[in-house]
Amino acid sequence: FGSRRTGFPPGPPTVPILGNAHIFPKDHAFLQLSEWARTYGGVYSVMLGNGPTIVVTSAKAAFELMEKQSAVTVDRPPSHIGAEIVGTAVNLAFVPYSEDWRLMRKAANSILTPQSAAKHVPIQRAESFQLVYDLLHTPERAWWHLRRTSNSVALSILYGRRAPRYESDDLSVLFDVVDLVGELLDPGAHPPVDMFPILKYVPERWARWKTMVKRLRSMQRALYFRLLQQSEDRVTNSEASEDEPFIDKVVRRQADYGLNRERTAYLGGTLVEAGSDTSASFMQSFVLLIAAFPDAQKRLHEEMDRVVGSKRVPEYDDFDNLPYLQATIKEVHRYRPVAPLGLPHAALEDLTYDGYLIPRGSAIIVNMWGIYHNPDVYDDPEMFNPERYLKSEFGTKPDVDPSYFKHTMPFGFGRRICPGRHLVDNTIRVNTMDLVWGFTFGPPINEATGKPEPLDLWSYSEGLGTGPKPYKCTIKPRSSQHADLIRSEFESAIPLYGPYEEGLSNAEKEWLAQQRFS
Ligand code: HEM
C-alpha cells in the first residue's frame, strides 16, 4: 500500500502506506509539481492513497491523452467532500462520467454556443461601460469593480438579473458560496478523505469540514432555487426569444434535455459559480500585469490610438484589428493561468503512454503552469512578454513542434473542456478593449515618499482556481476627452440595463436612482 507498481510512470520515492502523500505540497502545488517534472519528465506519477495520480507536464502528452483519448479520460476522480456538498444533486464540473453528466453537459453545450454567446454582447458591453465609469470615480476599488463586473455578467446572461453594485443581494450570497467552495475544495485545506477513507468517520465535532459542507449545501440550494424560480416565472409569462437568459432556455426545454427541476437548478448554479470568479481572476491579472509592465502597456496604447483613437469608444469588431491586445490576452493566460492545474480527469480504462501503464481509475492532472513556464518551450518564461505571441502562433520557441498546442488549453481538454469559454472570450474582449482605451495603469504611489511601490505578482489566492489577492494600483483616465466619453457611454447604456434590473429589491432600485441621477 502506498508503493509504486512496476510499469507505472516514474515519480518521487514513496514511503509505506503514505506513498507520496506526506510530501504532496499544501500551497501552490503547481510549483512543486513543475519542479518534479524537471526530474521525472512530462508524464510522472505521485502515489496518493492506493492509486497513482498522473501528472502531465507536456503539451504532446496532454494532446495524446486528453484530446485523442478523450473518451477514456473524460471521467473525474471521486471527491468525497464534493459528493457530500451536493448530496442527491449533481455538480456538472465535479460529477464523474455518468448519464447525469451527459445530460447536463448536452444542455450546457447546446445553450453556450458561439452564436448564442454573441447574442449577449450588448449586456457585456453595457457592464463594461459601468466598469470604466466606476473606475473613473473610485479607481482605488478596481479589484472589487472587476469582481462585480464579471459576476454581474454571469448572472445577467445566465439568469437575466444583474448586480449593479458589489453589495447587491445576489452577489453577496454568490461570493460567500464561491469562497466557501474554494475553501472546501482546496486540496491542502482539509484532511485527505479521498486518500484515507477512514477519515470520513471522524465525528463532526473534530471535523470542521463537515459543518462547512452542511452550511454550503444549504446556501447553494437557497440561491439556486431562488434564481431558478425567477426563470420559471419569466418563462411562464413570456415568449421564447433568442437573447433570453440561458437558464430560461433550459427551463423551456427541460423535458427535451431530460433534466428534472433539481438538475436544472444545479446546472444553472454550477455554471454561475464556475463562470463568475474565474473571469474576474483573469481580468484582475490583466490589470495587475499591464500596471506592472509599462512597455507592454505603451504598445497597447499605441495600437489602440492607431485603430480606435480618442473620438469614439472601441466597438466589438475592433478587436480583430488589435493583434497586440490579442497577444497580451494569450500572455496573461500563459503567465498567470486561472486554473494552473485545470480540473483533474480520471481514466475509465487502462491506458499506456510511452510504455508506461496508467491504470483504470487513475486521476490525471494536466499541469498547465508547468507547461506554460517550461524554459525548453518558452524563451524566458518568467518574463511577461506578449511579443512572443506575435513571433509564433503559440508563443513557443522556434524549435518547438506547435502541433500539440491549442489556444483553448487554459480552458482544459477533450470532452470536459470548459463550456463557458465562448462566453468568457467575449467578456475578456470587451473589457480589455475598454480598459486599455480609457486608462493608464501603474504601480501604487507611497503616500509618505511619493514614490511608486512595486506590485506583488505572487500574491495569489490558493485553490483550484487562483487569482490576485486585492491589490492597489494607480488608474488614471488617458485624457479629459476619454473621461467625457466614458460618462456619456455609461449614460446611454442605462436603458440597456432595464430588463436586467426588473427583479431587483426596492433598496437596490433606490440606490440606483440616487447613483444615476444625482
Ligand atoms: C477565464 C475564465 C475561465 C477559465 C480559465 C475556465 C477554465 C476551466 C477549466 C480549466 C476547466 C476544466 C476543464 C477540464 O476538465 O479539462 C473548466 C471547466 C468548466 N467550466 Fe470554465 N473557465 C472559465 C470560465 C467559465 C465560464 C464563464 C463558465 C460558465 C458560464 C464556466 C463553466 C465551466 C464548467 C461548467 C466546467 C466543467 C465542465 C465539465 O466538467 O464538463 N467556466 N473551466
Order of helices and strands: HEEHHHHHHHHHHHHHEEEEHHHEEHH
Ligands? protoporphyrin IX containing FE
The percent range for helix content is: 40-55%
How many helices?
A: 19
Rg estimate, integer Å: 23 Å
Multimerization state: single chain
Low-confidence segments, ≥5 residues, pLDDT <50? none
Q: What is the SS-derived class?
A: alpha+beta
Enumerate the strands of the largest sheet in spatial order, edge to edge or round the barrel.
1-2-6-3
Q: Average pLDDT across residues?
A: 92
Shape: globular
Q: What is the strand tally? A: 8
What is the CA–CA distance across the termini?
A: 69 Å
Biggest beta-sheet profile: 4 strands, mixed
InterPro entries: Cyt_P450 (IPR001128), Cyt_P450_CS (IPR017972), Cyt_P450_E_grp-I (IPR002401), Cyt_P450_sf (IPR036396), Cytochrome_P450_fung (IPR050364)
Cofactor: heme
Family: Belongs to the cytochrome P450 family.
Keywords: Heme, Iron, Membrane, Metal-binding, Monooxygenase, Oxidoreductase, Signal, Transmembrane, Transmembrane helix
